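Lab notebook: predicted structure, single chain.

Context: the supervisor wants predicted structures on file for every construct in the current expression panel, including those that have not yet been purified. This is the next one on the list. No modifications to the sequence; it matches the entry in the shared construct table.
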Amino acid sequence: MNNEKVYGMDFSKIYSLLVNKATRKGRSKDEVDQVICWLTGYTREELERLSDQSVTYSEFFQNAPCLNEKRSLITGVVCGVRVETIEEPLMREIRYLDKLIDELAKGKALEKVMRK
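Prediction complete. Output recorded below exactly as produced.
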């Protein structure tokens, strides 16, 4: 799948997939929201509003209020690619979120997921 196709995907669809992935593994929607808010700087209210609107995945990240400075501490492999080596900035942000949700779903403590 090329990057433009990913960037044009509807955030609400991606959001529901992220929540489903975590909840299938015994985590909560609240935990997913905490992780997304930590990474992007959105409030929970903003996140809920965006999940009800027609916003692309690209717009979601480009309009993020304050991307967390500690996101550079996120390392590892997602979809066979090391997130820290992804050169395209927007795709790196997307993969950071994928990695965080993967860690959450695998049972990692929320504090560690959020690099506290």
